[in-house]
Amino acid sequence: MIDQRLLPRREVYRVYRDSREVARAIREMVVRGAPAIGVAAAMGVALGARRLSERNTDAGFERLCRALLHTRPTAVNLAWAIERMRRVYREHRGAPMNRLRERLEREAQAIHDEDIASNRQLGRHGASVG
Questions:
Q1: What phi and psi values does residue 28 have, to the nearest 5 degrees?
Q2: Beta carbons within 8 Å of 38's beta carbon, 6+ residues apart
Q3: Long-range contacts from 105-111, C-beta under 8 angstroms, 24+ separation
Q4: Rounded to an integer, what distance in angstroms lies between the CA atom of residue 24 and that of residue 31?
Q5: Which among 38, 57, 69, 120 could bridge 81 via Cys, Cβ 3.0 to 4.6 Å?
Q6: pLDDT tens-digit readout, 8-46
Q7: pTM of the full predicted structure?
Q8: Domains of the chain
């Protein structure tokens, strides 16, 4: 993530390897802007799913989602992205753990890709008006 607290004077990229780090980044406003917060939350869910155990998957997944939701309780895109990840989890929860994790990672990537496409479309539209 680009540490948005430092912009425009410095462009610093941060790497997060687990959901707790992503949650902290959202809470501390490293990432700003509704769509970017949603993407970060989805990626946080995917990272957190890597640590879920086979024995307590449902409870662990729900704890993970709630922890990310509490980082910014009023952020609409954050809640939307987490709900989308929950839907994928529910649809694939009987699958082997590696397939479930893969599916969650693909969904997080899809949320990311859709955000980029939306921004590009907005840019094209703005360029045609200006």
A1: -85, 5
A2: 75, 77, 78, 80, 81, 111, 115
A3: 105/46, 105/49, 107/42, 107/46, 108/39, 108/42, 108/43, 108/45, 108/46, 111/38, 111/39, 111/42, 111/81, 111/84
A4: 10
A5: 38
A6: 999 999 999 999 999 999 999 999 999 999 999 999 999
A7: 0.92
A8: 19-129 (1.20.120.420)
Number of Cβ atoms within 10 Å of the Cβ of 37:
23
How many angstroms separate the Cα of 4 from the Cα of each of 22, 65, 85?
14, 24, 25
Asked if residue 40 lies in contact with residue 1, where contact means CB atoms within 8 angstroms, the answer is: yes
Number of DSSP helices (H) and strands (E) in the chain, helices first: 5, 0
CA distance 14 to 11: 10
pLDDT confidence of residue 49: 96
What is the rounded distance in angstroms from the CA atom of residue 31 to the CA atom of residue 40? Answer: 8
| Contact between residue 26 and residue 40 where contact means Cβ atoms under 8 Å apart | yes
Q: List Cα–Cα distances, 31 to 8, 15, 77, 92, 109, in angstroms.
A: 14, 12, 13, 29, 17
**Can you say whether residue 29 is alpha, beta or left, with left for phi > 0 and alpha for psi between -120 and 50 degrees?**
left
